[in-house]
Amino acid sequence: MTDATVRSLPRFSARLTTCVMLALAAALLGACKSPATNFYTLSPDESLSSTGASRPIAAVVGPVTIPEIVDRPQIVTRIGNNEVEVNEFDRWAQPLGGDIGRVIAADLGALLNSQQISVFDAVRDPSVVWRVRIDVMRFESVPGRDVTVDVLWAVRPPGKVRAVTGRSVARESVSGPGFEPIIAAHDRALASVSRDIAAAVQANPVQ
Predict the structure, then answer these.
(1) CA angle 132, 174, 168 (to 5 degrees)
(2) How far apart are CA 151 and CA 65, in angstroms?
(3) H helix and E strand count, the chain
(4) What are the pLDDT digits (tens) for 113-154?
(5) Tell me: the pLDDT tens digits for 71-94?
(6) Do the beta carbons of residue 33 and residue 26 sit within 8 Å?
(7) Order of strands, edge to edge, in the sheet holding 38-40?
(8) At what angle do helices 180-203 and 96-111 cross, to 10 degrees?
(9) 169: part of which helix (H) or strand (E)?
(10) Regarding beta strands 129-142 and 164-173, do their DSSP bridges make them parallel or antiparallel, or are they unpaired?
(11) CA–CA dist 79, 73 (Å, integer)
């Protein structure tokens, strides 16, 4: 072995060590990579149809309040009587309160045969607008089992001071594992709430 060869060995060893360290770092970064985040949104119940409203009405759904425990981007599921799980990588695509209001407005539009029901107050004449307030008391999800939606609601006919109030508790079974069946069950539960509100509107026609 020549002197030049001996002198080159430390340099080769240093390069080899550097390459090994870089490969290990890349492997560690790959192992620590976070799982992909899934985003979900509620949807109106497409099976709903008009229940026989005499004429389309104009209505604004809101405000909508929800419990603080679920008022966050992450989907919260119940895993015990006194324990919940905040699912970091399964999230709502938009704020849950606004999503609930949007779905109830769409469901009411189908049930009351009206295209003038929204979460936005776009009608210029307030004397013809119904007001629907939504206070969600419970919005619970138990994976693989069921969901529960408990809503206090108030319907105020146009031109009247006193509102018609009610409470709807809807429980729907979850059809399988994962979050898609949970979201679909919540869609059905909100449709049940919307049916109760639509019935209150029809039972209190504007004079």
Answers:
(1) 25
(2) 10
(3) 3, 8
(4) 999 999 987 666 778 899 999 999 999 999 999 999 999 999
(5) 999 999 999 889 999 999 999 999
(6) no
(7) 38-40, 83-92, 74-80
(8) 50
(9) strand 164-173
(10) unpaired
(11) 18
